[in-house]
Specification:
Low-confidence stretches: 17-32
Number of strands: 13
Strand order of the largest sheet: 1-2-3-5-6-7-8-9-10-11-12-13
Radius of gyration: 21 Å
CATH class: Mainly Beta
Mean pLDDT: 83
CATH topology: Porin
CATH architecture: Beta Barrel
Largest sheet: 12 strands, antiparallel, barrel
Structural class: mainly beta
Distance between the termini: 40 Å
CATH superfamily: monomeric porin ompg
Number of helices: 2
Order of helices and strands: HHEEEEEEEEEEEEE
Length: 274
């Protein structure tokens, strides 16, 4: 019987091959570039990727394993831009009691896919559309999807892009189905307020990025969500960076015996071409 977690990891490596290999090949100064149309070469050169891997191992009275991987694939020109971001998180825990080890319990099996499409995003004010699908074993979410449209504003954007800060406002529709049949599913319209920034210091030897998204219900009830991420990245080579991050997630509506707030602190590596 095939392990679904191994299959998920395999799918991420397949995405790596599909998305990143063509860009890497075009970066080589070989005769191969002579056989590829220049318009396609220009299109591929504008693509950027970022592959993030975080892991945690703990041994002793409690054995803990957590793995988080995501692939961020981006493209931008003067008219349009898009970003695709699949993410997979897997974590399990086992505990030793009276010389017996309790079988590992899968706590996290999180899968998500984000798609963002921007229009004139190089301008100070721009428009965008987005879609999100996700599953969460931790929060007992069988399936969730979101789709929406909005506008953005580059509050700060320096010429060398060392400091960027933008604010977006959007309207979205969300549908959430829970694993537990006793927990009512819901369909809802939300507003979305997001503040996102990247800041580079010490001649690009330290990068700080942050994203905070507030998702209140348009029904003005307690069905609101907050998602926040803080990350520090330190280059250790031209393509590899050491990364420390902190995630916070709050959900107003959760199943019984599930806390509203989760936090996650991680350390890992980033592989990127920019």
């Amino acid at each position: 019987m095939k392990n679904p977690n191994i299959q998920n990891l395999r799918n991420f490596f397949i995405l790596w091959i599909i998305f990143i290999s063509p860009t890497s090949l075009l970066g080589q100064k070989e005769s191969l570039t002579d056989t590829i149309p220049k318009r396609f070469q220009k299109f591929m050169y504008r693509h950027k990727y970022k592959w993030t891997n975080d892991a945690l191992w703990q041994t002793g009275n409690v054995k803990r394993f957590l793995y988080n991987t995501s692939l961020q694939f981006m493209y931008a020109d003067s008219m349009i831009d898009y970003e695709i971001k699949p993410r997979f998180i897997y974590g399990e825990i086992s505990q030793k009691q009276n010389e017996q080890v309790i079988k590992g319990i899968v706590q996290e099996r999180e899968q998500s896919l984000d798609l963002h499409l921007g229009l004139l995003s190089q301008k100070r004010f721009y428009g965008f559309g987005f879609g999100v699908i996700e599953k969460s074993n931790l929060r007992k979410i069988e399936f969730r999807w979101q789709a929406g449209v909005g506008v953005g504003w580059h509050v700060i954007k320096t010429q060398n892009n060392h400091h960027k800060l933008n604010l977006t406002v959007a309207l979205l529709h969300e549908e959430t189905n829970f694993i537990n049949p006793s927990q009512p599913d819901y369909q809802i319209f939300r507003a979305s307020l997001r503040l996102k920034g990247t800041h580079q210091f010490f001649d690009n030897h330290l990068k700080f990025s942050h994203t905070t998204t507030f998702l209140p219900s348009l029904a003005f009830d307690n069905n609101k969500r907050l998602i926040s991420n803080l990350a520090l990245e330190i280059p250790i080579s031209k393509r590899i960076q050491l990364r420390a991050s902190f995630d916070l997630t709050y959900e107003g509506i959760v199943p019984a015996n599930i806390l509203n707030t989760d936090t996650r602190t991680q350390l890992g590596l980033v592989i990127t071409n920019f």
